[in-house]
Amino acid sequence: MIDTRVNIAGVELKNPVMTASGTFGSGAEYSEFVDLSKLGAVVTKGVANVPWPGNPTPRVAEVYGGMLNAIGLQNPGVDVFVERDIPFLRQYDTKIIVNVCGRSTEDYCEVVERLGSEDVDLLEINISCPNVKEGGIAFGQNPASAEAITKAVKRVAKQPVIMKLSPNVTDIAEMAKAVEAGGADAVSLINTLTGMKIDIHRRAFALANKTGGLSGPAVKPVAVRMVYQVANAVKLPVIGMGGIATAEDALEFILAGATAVSVGTANFFRPAATIEIAEGIEEYMRKYKVDAVTELIGAVR
Amino acid sequence: MPGKWKETAKIVGQTKIGKGIYSMWLQTEEIAGHAVPGQFISVYCRDGSRLLPRPISICEIDREMKQLRIVYRVAGKGTEEFSKLETGGSLEIMGPLGNGFPLSRMEEKHHAMLIAGGIGIPPVVELSKQLPGGKSIVVGYRDELFLTEELGKNGSVFIATEDGSAGTKGNVLDAVRENDIQADIIYACGPTPMLRALKAYAQEKGIECWISMEERMACGIGACLACVCQSKEVDGHSHVHNKRVCKEGPVFLASEVEL
Question: What are the EC numbers (chain A) (predicted)?
Fold first, then answer.
């Protein structure tokens, strides 16, 4: 019997595969294609204290081996989320990780406090969205701000806190150390890389927001490198993501030091990608006679 | 909740029916049996460098044979890839997606105007087949005509061309005025400027008007929030003013959306 369980800050996941925030809603749409009970966790779309309308369209553009998005964190606000999405997810035997976004420290803390009494397993704090003017990445590009927001959130959080890091920094290990110093229970990375696409025929930006976050297979080598650097810089569990589309991709992240992995853009081209990846990891373990997936975490040094 | 399926469809046949315009019949397992006029499918590229599915409207549905027809324009590398596929080949698709045209409105209405422009014409073919009651079909082209024969089987067809090579010289509304077409409901699909003009026309005349919209999509099923349009009322999903074209749409009451 192979053991696929992993542990993130005291929360046990049945396997290391989860969804990446923003690509999976709160799971309802994909539940037609995926048995959510087979996932280690569902990570929700970012939720703020009040509804956010997001950015103008076009919000997405395809690029070679990837895509750009600038959704701008459209979300219904924490009240609707708590009433509608948590009960929906609780029907399934999976862990619930709520991604939290905000424009100010107070915004983040308000949502985190509100979720304190709710049935959620972990919080993921988004300090790395490249597509909003205030908040988001502003907290995630400076170690002192990242440490401060982590401390503020930890002061009010009832659930363990994952800080989601941006790759749009000079030294991601330094950012990871900063949130570790701030009391984070785990880190997740990478959020998207800021990019741009120009339509040469219209001589215009492909996205209304001009810039957008690059995701998909194109970013994977950058993400694996950053996961490796962070895993070797901090003692916290690392959730790795960035272009994971197959079990082989996921295993690279785990061998680089990730305790769990998130699947994002791949959901758009293979709606059942998460399940296929979870099954592929098991297959790999059988093939190489690995008893526990934890043996693979950071096994390449 | 109506189902959606991801399938490997077999290509029954593909023909070029105009400049850069292709018609493809697909053998499906489930999708054709559940599709309604105005819905679309996501079509996936085989080339791994092109990740996102292409949303393509359903042109005709053969429930008995479980076949679907799509008619699309080659607009980039993805649709170019599809255009090179041959009979007997396969294509990854998902569907049926979106809401479709509300056929039941004809229980109250008498005569419908079906208005479409350019590559917005294909979904009106199946609509014209299934829509009960009287109907006038108004189609606008740049120059070259396509699908007019199919449409002619289901109602009287009025044509507008930009270059005046067929029918009314001008746009679809010019054809509506020139032929003095009267209706108490409009179903439309086409480019945004056309839809904007139709919305204004319908408002002025007090006619109920349903429009099929398009927007850049990623997931195609309502999860990613890429393809929103501005709605007059607060939407039920995100509680802002953004309806999802792929989920609440692509067909909206014109008065409900900002264009």
Answer: 1.3.1.14
Query: Looking at the complex, does the CB of residue B224 fall below 8 Å from at least one CB of chain A?
Result: yes
Q: Is the pTM of this model over 0.90?
A: yes
Q: Cβ of B51 and A67 within 8 Å?
A: yes
* Angle at B114 (CA atoms; ends B111, B120), nearest 5 degrees: 170
Neighbours of A224 (CB within 10 A): 22
Please, what are the domains in chain B? 5-97 (2.40.30.10), 103-212 (3.40.50.80), 215-252 (2.10.240.10)
Rounded to an integer, what distance in angstroms lies between the CA atom of residue B229 and that of residue B159?
Answer: 29
Cβ–Cβ contact B34 with A under 8 A: no
**Chain B residues near residue A60 by CB distance under 8 angstroms:** 52, 216-218, 224, 226-227
Which residues in chain B touch residue A30, judged by CB atoms under 8 angstroms apart?
221, 223
Specify whether A109 is catalytic. no
Helix extents (H) in A36-183: 78-80, 86-90, 105-116, 143-156, 172-181
Alpha-carbon distance B12 to B27, whole Å?
A: 6
Mutation target for A interface from B1, B7, B31, B219: give the one with most A CBs within 10 A: B219
Q: What is the pLDDT along chain A (301 residues), one digit of tens a residue?
A: 899 999 999 999 999 999 999 999 999 999 999 999 999 999 999 999 999 999 999 999 999 999 999 999 999 999 999 999 999 999 999 999 999 999 999 999 999 999 999 999 999 999 988 777 666 777 889 999 999 999 999 999 999 999 999 999 999 999 999 999 999 999 999 999 999 999 999 999 999 999 999 999 999 999 999 999 999 999 999 999 999 999 999 999 999 999 999 999 999 999 999 999 999 999 999 999 999 999 999 999 8
Best CA proximity match to B183, nearest among B172, B168, B167 = B172
Q: Is there a contact between A74 and B218 if contact means CB atoms under 8 Å apart?
A: no
Written out in words, the top-level CATH class of the domain with range A6-53+72-194+212-296 is alpha beta
Centroid of chain to Cα B190:
8
Q: Which residue has the tokens 């790795």?
A: A240
> Are residues A30 and B223, on separate chains, in Cβ contact within 8 Å?
yes
Which residue is closest to B46 within chain A, CA to CA? A269
